[in-house]
Amino acid sequence: MKTSKKISNMNRYNRIILMLSVIPITIFILSILFHITPLGLLDIVSEFAVHHYFLSGFLAVIAFSICMRAFLYNNDKITQLQNDKRIASQLKINRRKARIQKFKNNIALKLFALRNRLQKKEIKNSNKYHEKDVLASQEEVQIRQYDLMYAMKLGNSFKQSVKLYYKESNLNKRIESAILFVSNEHVTLKGGYVLPIKSIYKVEI
Fold it and tell me: Could you read off the pLDDT of 94-131 as tens digits, one per residue?
């Protein structure tokens, strides 16, 4: 914002310089048109102190040169400021992109770590349970699946806990928790605990 203000001020200053430079160059041109002729050039040089029009024209050229030099210098400064502004804007965009990318990388790393943790829990827990389903009939398996899906809806919508009865190392156990997710093989409970569906023999809602 400060750079834009500087550029605006310098452009305004350049316009003033141009307007001021018109005055001396006009004086110079008028001096030539109305007072200097090729035949009278030697007289003008010899009688320099007398011919004030020549002096005024000479001074006008000097003033015009100074104005033009200031104008060109300001133009160079404006170009430099514009380049600096463009570079600063690009750096700002790059820093914003870097922050977004860093945020995405952190999320990806956290998800990767969470997935590994869940996989380790599944592997650790799978050694405690039988590979075969604890339920014998297909009808009981379907009822259990329906109850688990309904319990998952209750857990996600209302944080409602349910009682799960399961077998672990030939022991009957019970756990009361909210079900967050039901896959084809596992149930994920609140707190990240994973339980194989085949080990569950009763769902009490």
Answer: 888 888 888 887 787 777 777 767 655 554 555 566 67
Instruction: Give the end-to-end CA distance of the chain in Å, rounded to a whole number.
Output: 63
Helix axis angle for 52-126 and 2-35, nearest 10°, is 160
Whether this model's pTM surpasses 0.70? no
- Which residues are within 8 A (CB) of 74 and not within 5 positions of it... i.e. 6 or more apart? 10, 13, 14, 17
What span, in angstroms and rounded, lies between the C-alpha atoms of 13 and 23? 16
* CATH code of the domain covering residue 181: 2.30.30
Q: Are residues 11 and 67 in the same domain?
A: yes
| C-beta of residue 37 within 8 angstroms of C-beta of residue 11 | no
**Could you tell me whether strands 194-196 and 200-204 are parallel, antiparallel, or unpaired per DSSP bridges?**
unpaired
- Domain span including residue 55: 2-106
Residue corresponding to tokens 């860093």? 102
C-beta separation of 81 from 3 below 8 A:
yes
Q: How many CB atoms lie within 10 A of CB 150?
A: 15
Q: Are 67 and 13 in contact (CB under 8 A)?
A: no
Place of tokens 């914002």: 1
